[in-house]
Structures are given as C-alpha cells and as structure tokens.
Specification:
0% of the residues lie in helices and 39% in strands. By secondary structure, it is an all-beta fold. It has a six-stranded antiparallel beta sheet, with no helix packed on it. The chain has a five-stranded antiparallel beta sheet with strand order 2-8-6-4-5, with no helix packed on it. A hairpin with a 5-residue loop joins strand 4 and strand 5.
Length: 188
C-alpha cells in the first residue's frame, strides 16, 4: 500500500525512552516585523530578541541549523483568534515544545529513507502550509541524511502506524538533534 502525501510538519508523539510525556512547552514571542506566517508543526529558532517583558522571540526555522522547538499552539491576543496559525506581520505569542527528547513524526517527501538510515541526521525542508487544516508543510529532507552533527534532526525510525512503509511520503520518527536549548550549545 502506498503512503499518502499528507505533510503536517513536525507532530509530537511521545518522549524518547521509557518515561511518559513530560510536556516541555514554553511561550515565546514573534514580533510584528516578522513577515513569515507560522503554523502548528513549524520548527522555530530563537532570533536573539525579546518583547518588552523579556519573553524571548523566535522565527520560523529555515530547515538547517539549530532548532529551539516546534510550534504547538498560539496564545489568543484579544483581537486575533490564533487557533491554528499566526498570520504574517502579526505580533503573537506562540507555545513551543522545546524538549529535545520529544519524538516527532514528519513526512519524508523524497522517499529515500531506508532501514540503514536510522540514526543518521538530516535537514528539514519548508513546504506549503495547509490553509484549511492550519498545519505546517515542513517535511524531512532525506536527501541530506548524513552523520553531520549540526544537522537539525536525528532519524529515529519509521512511525509505527498502519500502512506506513519505507518509500515516498513515509512518516518518519525524528527528534531534535541540534537544539538551542540543549547543554553545551552555541549561544545565539
């Protein structure tokens, strides 16, 4: 059975290892000057700024380099209902899963992931978000898979779901490999 082409960005599934879900969601700020829309499932990275109260600001990740976390939701601001996305050029507070031990499911569009690739690292690729479901279009850039330590995600395996198999549009388990929130990471 062929996999379906349904990118949803990075979807948190569970904590890596045997312990239960621990959360790890923090609030960050996105300035109105940021002209890129954000959707649930988008990876983000700290941009070195903050709001007037000192809440660190983030911007959408470009697909390579360190990741701060993955957008899980938005804080309504009283004038805009931010249920599924943050419109471009709109100041907002986003809820971001920052725990680098979280396993995420992400779609592999290239279809080059094989069993031998488990444990390698890879980049992500920005994609077109789904305006109806309000989900991210980020996918795994499996053609970039390598042992390189600075790649943003680590391939942990194939998502165990009915009908999911190696090949185009496979749903792959990854975790953040290059995190701005982990010990001994480079400052921003």
């Amino acid at each position: 059975m062929a996999n379906t082409n349904t990118p949803r960005g990075m979807v948190p599934l569970r904590d890596a290892g045997s312990k239960g879900e621990t959360g790890g969601v923090e609030m960050f700020y996105v300035a109105a000057a940021d002209a890129t829309a954000l959707f649930i499932g988008d990876p983000v990275v700290k941009d070195g700024g903050a709001d007037a109260a000192g809440v660190a600001s983030v911007t959408r990740h470009g697909g390579t380099g360190a990741i701060t976390g993955v957008v899980e939701g938005f804080v309504p601001n009283g004038t805009t209902d931010m249920v599924g996305n943050r419109a471009a050029s709109t100041a907002a507070y986003v809820l971001v899963r920052t725990d680098p031990n979280t396993l995420f499911e992400v779609q592999d569009t290239a279809g080059t992931i094989a069993a031998a690739d488990i444990g390698l690292n890879a980049n992500l690729t920005t994609g077109t978000a789904n305006a109806y479901s309000k989900r991210s279009g980020f996918v795994l850039a499996s053609a970039s898979k390598a042992v390189t330590a600075t790649l943003p995600v680590k391939i942990m395996g194939l998502s165990q779901r009915p009908g999911n198999e190696f090949g185009a549009f496979a749903k792959v388990l990854v975790k953040i490999n290059n995190s701005t929130e982990a010990n001994a990471s480079v400052g921003i």
